[in-house]
Amino acid sequence: MRIDTAAGSILCDPWVNPAYFASWFPFPDNSQLDWEALGDVDYLYVSHLHRDHFDAAHLKRYVSKDATVLLPEFPTSEMEDELRELGFTKFLRAPNEQVVELDGGLKIMIQALTSPTDGPIGDSSLWVEYDGVRLLNQNDARPTDLSVFAELGHVHAHMLQFSGAIWYPMVYELPQAAKTAFGKQKRERQFDRTWRYIDDLKADHVFPIAGPPCFLDDALWQFNDIHGDEGNIFPDQSVFLSEYAKVGGTNGIVLLPGSVSEVTTSGASTTHPVPVEEFFADKIAHLEEMRERKRPVIEAEKASWRHPEVDVLGEMKRRIEPLLDESIYLAKGVGGPVRFDLVGTDDSGGETIESIVVDFPGKEVRPYADEKVRYRFRTERALIEHLLHIGEVDWVNSLFLSCRFSAARIGQYNEFVYAFFKCLSTERLQYAEGWYDEHERTSDAEDITLGDWVVQRRCPHLKADLTRFGIVDGDQLTCQLHGWKFDLPSGRCLTSVGHKVRAHRADANTPAPAGEAVG
C-alpha cells in the first residue's frame, strides 16, 4: 500500500516476490504494476520481518534509497541491519506509541509489539495523519486494544488483516473431517477478531488487506479457497465483504493492485483497474493463469534448495546445541524431544532417510532413538539443507509458513516449540528468554468478574484485556484475541501447556493462586 499526501508519500510493506520456499504469492498479482514509479517515495514503512512483508529483492531493486525508513522500536536491530544491507541509509527511529511530526505537517505514530510470538520478534501498526485525515494501517498486527490510536482522534481509514497466515490446521496429520472442523473454527475466530477490532476503532472506512496469500505450486494448490472447503483459513476480500455484511458492515472497501482510494474527512472515492466483483468472479481463471506464468519462478527456486554437501545432523548440533545450553524458559516450556523426519526428493518415493531429535531436556541434537516424542515434523531434507546453508535464524517464518511439511503432536499446542525455532541466534534467544522471565515474574494483581467467575484481568497468553476479549461459558474461559481456552476451576490452559489463569467463583471468599483448584 502506498499513502500519498501533499506532505509526502509512504510505501508500506511492498511484497511482490514469492515467500517461504516459493509457497506464498501475493493475490491479486501485483508484479505487473509500475514499480519504478511506485518505489519513488519519500518514506518506507515495513511493519515487520515476515517475508510476505519484507521483500528484500524488491526493496533493493525498486524502492528509492533516498527514502527515509520509518523504523518501529523493535527489541533487536535486525530490521535496520537488513535494510542497511539493501542500501537504505536514512532512518527515523519512531519512539513507541509517540506521535512524530514529519516535514510539511505529516504526522505518524508506530505501535511496536515485542512479544517473541509477535511476528519474528516484533510486529507493528502505522498511524498517519495529514490535514485532519487519519489512517491506521494495522496490517496483521494484533494489539490487545486500539485505544492508543482512538485517543488521537477519529480514524477515517482502517486497514487490517482478516484472513489466515499460518500452517494450522492444514499440515497436521489428522483425518480430513477433523481438519475441516478445526479450520472452520479458526476461520470463524479470524473474522470474530476482525469485527472486534473494527468495532473498537469505528473508522469511517474499512480496508481488508494483508492477505490472503495464494498457492501456485501444484503440491500446495489445494490451500487456495476455491474448492468449497468451509474449513479453508484463507478467505479472500470478496468473502470478507460478504461476512462483514452479515454483521451489519457497510463501510468495507476492497482494493485491487492499481486501485486508488481518495479518503477525506467526509468520505472516500475509489477507482479500480477492473470491477472488483468481476475480478473475484473470475478468481479461478486468474489463479490458473498466474500459476502458469509463475511456474518457472517456482522451479528456479526449487533448484536452489539442494545442498547435499551439508551434514544436516552435524550442522544442527553445531548451531542448536549452544542455544539449548543457554535456554531456560523455552527449553523448560518445550519439555521434551522434538523430532524431524527428513525425506528424500519426490523421485526417491518420499521415504524418510534420516530422523533427528532436538532433545530439550537433554540439551542435545542427536539421531532419533525410537523414543516417544510429543512433536514431530516431516519435511524434505533439501529444505533443512537450505536453511542450514543460508544460516536462517527463523525456521518458523521460513519452513513452517511454507506449509511444505506435515506435523503430528500428542496433546496440546505448545507455543514454546515455535518460539524456540524462530530464535536460532543468540540475540533472539536471549531476548525471548528475558521476555518470558519478565512475564513469569510479573504477577497480574487486578481481577475482574466475568459471569459467575472472578479472573485475572490479563490473559496469561499475551496479556489481552479479558474485559474486552474474555467470554465465559459455564466453567470455561475463552480469550477471543487468539482463541485460547482455560478451565476455570483448575486454572489450566486447554489450548497450550503452561499459561495458567487465576480464577475463583464469584461467590467464593478467597481467590486461589493461579492453577490451583478452588474447593
From TrEMBL:
Q: Which UniProt keywords apply?
A: 2Fe-2S, Iron, Iron-sulfur, Metal-binding
Name a GO molecular-function annotation. 2 iron, 2 sulfur cluster binding
Protein name per the record: UDP-MurNAc hydroxylase
Q: Which InterPro entries match?
A: RibonucZ/Hydroxyglut_hydro, Rieske_2Fe-2S, Rieske_2Fe-2S_sf, SCP2_Rv3818
Q: Where is the Rieske domain?
A: 454-494
